[in-house]
């Protein structure tokens, strides 16, 4: 079943749920009217459906491979990449001054979701470049910006992020890659990096690696880390790719999925690099790149969830099996248990999409207004959008396999590929455990202010809905209130108690945000229609999960250590 | 990390949780004393650890393949199969009269779990044969029993189950395979069967297919289905494999996992078959085979959960990353969020194992005493053991990937293989949705009597524990009571309302059964020690999930149909 971009959902969310009108009311994004965003989404949908979606299976069957020192990409990827680049989609949110479209992050986020849903393994490439554009736009020198940004925005060159080393994964501060000054303003970068997404390819003229490394006087830990631009080919005086730099792809990983996307082990052997931002300021630059990427990865989860849902729905509407008791067809989609699965898949995908787009709205508002509250909201929502978006991707892909029955286990069906592909999104750009720790740690350093502000809005929305939707409004209000109390309680706890309940807390938060989005959708629809039915399904059957999650969260850490890790062994 | 059979858990469960003493007190199983069962488990553990576990990765890397008309199995499988057969493990629960060990199903279930945990793809072969032995023992003619049983029990021949056809999966009654009388007491079987596990191999002298087909006068639906024995080679007068039968493997499936196990499309072209049981009595015979297999499949889930847990634990105890706040090591196993995952994995695996073994005890008691109540309990627990065991397998394998971080996505690590392999167990032998519908439908045709009897025992156990363990006992009692009320309510509902909540209901039931097992473990341990810590973890943090599950269940079907399947499309 071919992928269909969920345009109606985007339009509905833009107008009725996430409040894009506030973004449009700013000077910066005044031109992003409904006619413009609609045209943009329609064009991106066409690309996703017609150009990217047909590459989903071929990318799995013909993995990227290392051929000598060249990375060969799956058939069709080069052409599709060019279509993405020529459509201007890489620079959709980049400043117009460097050739970007200058559109709101909200629109870029929707576009990225569609491309990820259509072909995740290829979409990863422009997503990485977008992160690099963001980092250079904020931290690069004017010369570096002038040289790299236009070429990245057009897709002539692409970008990668080089953070991880074998001993330095979640703990970036443990990295060992060295940067020695060459005396001419450049640095010699030496070290090995792993898990480098799209570490090389055979379709861009250059590959620009942003590499975290330590200067000779860099302190141990994260405070001594600097960021360097290390291009595969060193640009000549005209800005064309010149001499080959001393870096190479050592090998590509054999992964559970995303076979179309080359994940490289990279070796830097005195490679020439240029400092990005201040010495020892690498973490700040990295977080710029990473926060952007975290929302993008969350939307990858949503995109795959949408694709896996559509795939399962099409199968369930076609497959006849057993006696159907209710519904208007004799297909398995009308079996109660299959219907339950399909509705849960759709309701969660909608919730995750709304959370991701709300995060994007906050980013846009922060950029357009400079308002600290909006920046804090973006910071709060980013780990939730990343973790819940990707968890939803995994869960919906799982459910999609189950809807297919035995066919779900056969690779030709394509249902299993969604799970294999999306599984890593819950891991990369910071595992979902790291996201949860970010939420209860760094993102609560404001004393919970951003969280309380958001929960107030949710309670207010619920109060406004109470007259017409007493049950849904009451359940949403009660959940938000319980979450508020749990947040207050958590703020009194030691950090390890917070960490012990971080993952359940994040999920409970997402459940409440999802209820708020569904309630807004039901209100906008007037309470009758598919969106209202879905809202009732979500609020009555999925939202209640928040209660035991918060019970779990409140238990804290002590009991986890009443036995040792050795005691856990058989 | 090598697989270690969880012998201590089995011993503890046998003595303190599942009440194997009652089985031992019967005449039939009087010889299965602790010394005997201990020796048996120890020997099986050795086989699992030393012979089967080393084949886990090779079976994935060297899939079974069709070479002309011969199925080639992965390197080492033939030798390991012989070791299983020669150890007598195929006939562990088979009657001694046909060469079996005549041991309780409880012991066989533990042995099967170990073999599945060590190498699921190979263990599937003997599991299928065990189901066939069971079916022939109950439904075969004396001549058929004399011919087949000894050869199946020794593993000289092996057995398969042929149920599914492209249009007849969960709905077996839709099958089209025909059986025409040959006039000499045999039948000509013609049709195509799919998803035939271990449809052929290159290490047994014969492959005995039990095939569901319809006689010329067979009514449509399940009532007109008969069961036939259709051997690959027709036994000659001496019982040796003779003439090749008219059946063949058309192709092998490309599956998400279990690459070592050949899943065949089988073609029967007038193949000679012998009727098993009464004409049109195929479903009864199939259910004998299937009920056995369902418990076996549930324990496959538990076995893989155990293996995936051990694999993740070993990694987490070895891997150092980031600053550890609590615990006695600096490994990631002492990070609160990783500890949370590991404890949930172990606690759920223990619960699922206890449920499966309790189901086996009920089967043993029913066989040994003929007591209908025990048979009803076995019937009630079978779908729960199957669905919760396999869901736990999938969830623990998922969590195992997450514990590994980026390494979990790299195939060489082995973490992803557990998920790929175990995923099908939630589908085959009746999807977990079908199990749940069996629980709320067929297994409640006694007016809930078996369920209420079991819940009474659980409440009684909780009451007995209240003095020493007020919190755990109180929570378990309250959960059992809520489940009792939900069951009563459900029994008043139309079947489609039951089906709409069947999966959440089954899971809530499993949560309560798990709490009962953990509480018994804590009582037996005296409240201090790792088992008690795990019990508190489970009862405080995992059990509470039952409440929203039962809320979900109570909602019923109506709202699921307030929108059509077409409304769900984007």
Overall mean pLDDT score of chain A?
97
- As a whole number of angstroms, the C-alpha radius of gyration of chain A is 23 Å
CATH architecture of the domain at 7-153 in chain A: Orthogonal Bundle
Structure classification of chain A? alpha+beta
Q: What is the H-and-E element order of chain A?
A: HHHHEEHHHHEEEEEEEEEHHHHHHHHHHH
Fraction in helix of chain A = 40-55%
What can be said about the biggest beta sheet of chain A?
7 strands, mixed
Weakly predicted, low-confidence segments of chain A? none
Distance between the termini of chain A: 45 Å
GO molecular function (chains A, B): oxidoreductase activity
Keywords (chains A, B): FAD, Flavoprotein, Oxidoreductase
Family (chains A, B): Belongs to the acyl-CoA dehydrogenase family.
Cofactor (chains A, B): FAD
Structure notes:
The structure is a homodimer of 570-residue chains. With 570 residues, the first copy, chain A, is of the alpha+beta class. Among the domains of chain A are: 7-153, Butyryl-Coa Dehydrogenase, subunit A, domain 1; 159-280, Butyryl-CoA Dehydrogenase, subunit A, domain 2 (Beta Barrel), CATH 2.40.110.20; 447-561. Chain A has helices at 7-17, 20-24, 34-52, 56-61, 77-86, 105-118, 120-139, 142-153, 282-318, 336-369, 372-404, 415-422, 432-440, 449-465, 470-491, 495-500, 502-525, 530-542, 546-554, and strands at residues 65-67, 70-72, 157-162, 178-181, 187-197, 206-214, 225-231, 233-235, 241-244, 247-252, 263-276. In chain A, strands 3, 4, 5, 6, 7, 10 and 11 form a seven-stranded mixed beta sheet that branches. In chain A, strands 1-2 form a two-stranded antiparallel ribbon. A two-stranded antiparallel ribbon of chain A has the order 8-9. In chain A, strand 8 and strand 9 form a beta hairpin. In chain A, helix 9 runs parallel beside helix 11 and helix 10 (336-369) crosses helix 18 (530-542). The mean pLDDT of chain A is 97. Chains A and B meet through helix 1, helix 9, helix 10, helix 11 and helix 12 of A and helix 1, helix 9, helix 10, helix 11 and helix 12 of B.
